[in-house]
Task: inverse folding
């Protein structure tokens, strides 16, 4: 693994199903983030974590949950998917807790909820 | 409210120069980022400005005016590989990133 890895790359999901998007980084960054990217909109922060064991809500947290059991992993769970959660999801990490450093992004997970 | 404005799309010619503008309104300000995102790929960091002025990095330069709430990204000697979306993001007083919707740059031969 080099950098930040997301899985799956893409997924089609029936509404009401549970889904977990995985994110792993090997850079030992403390801060990790989940964003969604929709056409015509800027990246929107879903949840973040400044260090293992802590998480926080971003701009659009409803319908999503995260956990940070260790430094490397930051999974995003949709408990009961809805069509409005169709989006491209990016996981990112940074060695800066004040967001003043570069964000390193995973390649994205394209999720379609039918 | 907090807002980032940048043009939706721009077209330029290979070998030319293009300037992508970004204006921001945020609660406080702790710097401005530019990221490049090729279609279907992840954003990658280009620059971070926190002080007024121009910072040059190879063919790319980024300018910031804090008093005007304005930044631009200048791309020189355009290459076809520069065809991408360019994302502007401002850091507010709580160190939260506010992202623009991105400017899609189309390079024509």
Result:
């Amino acid at each position: 693994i080099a950098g930040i890895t997301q899985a799956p790359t893409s997924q089609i999901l029936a509404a009401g199903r549970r889904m977990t998007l995985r994110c792993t980084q090997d850079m030992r960054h403390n801060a990790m983030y989940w964003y969604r990217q929709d056409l015509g909109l800027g990246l929107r922060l879903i949840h973040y974590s400044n260090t293992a064991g802590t998480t926080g809500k971003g701009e659009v947290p409803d319908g999503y949950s995260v956990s940070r059991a260790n430094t490397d992993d930051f999974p995003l769970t949709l408990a009961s998917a809805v069509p409005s959660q169709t989006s491209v999801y990016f996981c990112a990490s940074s060695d800066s807790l004040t967001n003043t450093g570069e964000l390193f992004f995973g390649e994205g997970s394209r999720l379609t909820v039918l | 409210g907090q807002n980032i404005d940048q043009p939706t799309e721009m077209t330029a010619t290979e070998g030319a120069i293009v300037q992508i503008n970004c204006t921001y309104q945020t609660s406080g300000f702790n710097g401005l980022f530019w990221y490049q995102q090729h279609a279907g790929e992840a954003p990658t960091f280009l620059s971070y400005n926190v002080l007024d002025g121009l910072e040059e990095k190879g063919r790319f330069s980024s300018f910031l005016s804090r008093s005007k709430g304005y930044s631009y990204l200048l791309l020189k000697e355009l290459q076809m590989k520069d065809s991408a979306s360019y994302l502007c993001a401002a850091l507010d007083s709580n160190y939260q990133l506010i992202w623009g919707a991105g400017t899609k740059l189309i390079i024509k031969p």
